[in-house]
């Protein structure tokens, strides 16, 4: 799970960097302009998908952590005689 979450977060960072670079530069060369337009499209396509992936995988990770904590809490209560 962690490697997938790291990869999705890295993809989101790359997409946002591509958008920032494409939006910030205004070259005079037509080839460079075409490259930046392509870079911007790449960022626009990748950003929503990677952001959604980060949200879904992050939610799954939080649910797993919550379940593990709940199990540990109930076990601790049984061990101390309070549960």
Features:
mainly alpha; 2 helices; about 80 residues
Q: What structural category characterises the helix and strand content?
A: mainly alpha
- Mean pLDDT across every amino acid position: 87
Sheet-strand content, in percent, reads: under 5%
> How many separate helices?
2
Q: Report the helical percentage.
A: over 70%
Shape: rod-shaped
Low-confidence region ranges: none
Alpha carbon gap, first and last residue: 32 Å
State the order of secondary-structure elements, H for helix, E for strand: HH
**E-strand count:** 0
| Main beta sheet | none
| Cα-based radius of gyration, to the nearest Å | 22 Å
What does this structure look like?
With 83 residues, this protein is an all-alpha fold. It is built from 2 helices and no strands. Helix 1 (2-24) runs antiparallel to helix 2. The longest helix has 51 residues, at 30-80. The protein starts with a helix and ends with a helix. The model has no long low-confidence stretch (mean pLDDT 87).
In short:
With 83 residues, the protein is mostly helical.
What's the topology here?
Layout: H1 2-24, H2 30-80
């Amino acid at each position: 799970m962690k490697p997938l979450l790291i990869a999705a977060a890295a993809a989101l960072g790359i997409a946002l960097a591509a958008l920032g670079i494409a939006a910030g530069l205004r070259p005079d060369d037509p080839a460079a302009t075409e490259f930046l337009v392509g870079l911007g499209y790449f960022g626009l396509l990748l950003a929503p998908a990677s952001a959604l992936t980060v949200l879904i995988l992050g939610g799954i990770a939080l649910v797993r952590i919550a379940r593990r904590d709940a199990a540990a809490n109930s076990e601790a209560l049984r061990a101390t005689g309070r549960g």
